[in-house]
UniProtKB/TrEMBL annotation:
This is DUF421 domain-containing protein. The keyword Cytoplasm does not apply. The chain crosses the membrane at residues 6-23, 32-50, 56-76. It is found in: Cell membrane. It comes from Candidatus Coproplasma avicola.
Length: 223
């Protein structure tokens, strides 16, 4: 027991020193390569702690090697700017003044519901609450907000051509009224990238490949 305690303490101190030397980004929001390094360090550190038959030095050398690789990547990122894009990626502009950019969403393996969730976390509940929205290289969401945000909570009725029947019921809209609305907009469900509706019947509507527009639809009460 005493041996395991001592081995664990040594690995802990080694990890603590390496993480401190790697900088604050290891504690906060990480770039992709930093996340990989953190996962590797955690795995490598567990092996000598769990198995006393493995020499302790193996674990220490592995952790120090990862630290050295981290410093090499950091220097490449610092000295050769094109490497930053290769290693860390670059921000993706997913909302423009014309609306949601479906290409950028697909490029980042995201859909409209993922975007709306990220916006809610950032404090934006309507897609038109921002002029521009982007995902940073570390996955966080940033936005340039409009002066006057809409104080309502919309639900996603159509997501990339798929009608959400549950949200349609929450919005108090039957399928007949939805079809009539789409007919007025000269669209079919599969042609719609995103459609949200709030309790006042305010609609954020965007066809695939087209700018968004703000419309209105009759809803059964407010929520």
């Amino acid at each position: 027991m005493a041996l395991i305690f001592i081995r664990t303490a040594i690995i802990f101190i080694t990890l603590l020193l390496c993480m401190r030397l790697m900088g604050k980004s290891q504690i906060g929001e990480m770039q992709p390569f930093e996340f990989v390094i953190t996962m590797l360090i955690a795995e490598l550190a567990c092996i000598p702690m769990a198995d006393s038959s493995i020499p302790l030095m193996y674990g220490i050398v592995s952790v120090v090697t990862i630290f050295i690789l981290h410093q090499v990547v950091w220097l490449l990122d610092l000295w050769f700017k094109p490497m930053k894009t290769v290693i860390c990626g670059k921000p993706s502009l997913v909302i423009t003044r014309e609306g949601v950019d479906s290409y950028q969403l697909r490029k980042n393996n995201l859909d409209v519901s993922d975007l709306i969730e990220s916006m809610r976390v950032a404090g934006y509940f309507n897609l038109d609450d921002v002029y521009y929205g982007l995902y940073e290289a570390n996955g966080s969401f940033s936005a340039l907000e409009r002066e006057n945000k809409t104080p309502t909570l919309p639900v996603l009725v159509i997501d990339n051509g798929r009608v959400d029947k549950t949200n349609l019921g929450i919005a108090g809209i039957d399928r007949k009224n939805l079809d009539y609305f789409l007919k007025q907009c000269n669209a079919r469900p599969r042609q719609v990238l995103v459609m949200t509706v709030d309790g006042n019947g305010r609609v954020y509507f965007q066809k695939k490949g087209k700018p968004y527009s703000i419309e209105h639809i009759e809803v059964d009460g407010k929520w």
